[in-house]
Amino acid sequence: MYRSDIGIVSAGTGLPGDAIGTAALAERFGFGAPWEHWVNTFIGTTSRHLAIDLETGEVRATLADLGEEAGRSALESAGLEPGDIDLVVMGTATPDLLMPATVNVIADRLGIDGVPSFQLQSGCSGAVQAMDVASGLLATGQYRTALVLGGDVCAKHVVPDADFSRLPPAELVNLVLFGDGAGAVVLRREPEPGAVLLRGLFTRLVGLGRDPGQTLAWFGANRTFDQPAATEDYKAIEERVPVMAVEVLKELLENLEWSEADLRYLLPPQLSGRMSALIGERLAVPHAQQITRVNEIGNCGNGLVFFQLERALQAMGPGDRAVGVAIESSKWIKSGFALERT
After folding, report:
1. Which residues, in sequence order, are bridge partners of residue 328?
2. Structural domain ending residue among the three candidates 188, 206, 229
3. Which of 36, 42, 45, 143 is the most buried (most CB within 10 A)?
4. Which residues does the UniProt record annotate as the domain Beta-ketoacyl-[acyl-carrier-protein] synthase III N-terminal (predicted)?
């Protein structure tokens, strides 16, 4: 486990368009009230933001657009200029293109140049993996300030004129689970007094011999594929993610010699509104305030941790401690981080 005193100076986020409620989805795709009730009861996500127009299929925002918005907001909140950034790292499962890397497009738009840049291909733990890479490089002393980005645009895998009544549940659930969004944080070695410090952080692959819980295909222009663009083994995720989340929390607390009673805030995994609530109960830290966003903005993959961090930075007072957990279910990666405001 990596331990550090790297500071989280600021956070920023970006969302496309207005929130789209479940009732609007049901009406658009010809589902009735029973389907809307099923979503509200068993999924628990009431709204999401999508980067495409569901009526026309027109792209309203790219991942680079959302990442630029989030990165610019984080820089402004930190009072920094592009030239102050020494390092850029991004985590995403849905880059705009294979090349150029989306992280480099965002850096270019922000005016960042002449620095190392990295893009990590990963599911929902990619945000933590990106912070892990950036923190490790900052700890070497070679760099002082890093911009860390994460986000996903899943709506590009939706075909607006498809017959959704024919889709199996493993594909249909993605229509209501996911939204689009991006986030960013500025990390700094030797931050100003009073900063929120990244006290502990780790990511670990634990998928040996396990079938994928989620798949996301890349469809090239010159080939056809028989498999669907995206699938979700929701039952496997519902079974395994709470268990893995408890393991992450336990490992973080033991390594830092913290107890559950020390925690003021908890940032649980964000698959859906219902799952976040179930995982929160399983984590059994009743006195810690949970910071969740998925029920209102949908599961925007690698963006969600940053939306949680944005709220946490606003809420944490002197001495407050928090733990965040993110689980990647495509090939099962568990990750977590611990925060403390000095």
Report:
1. 333
2. 188
3. 45
4. 118-195
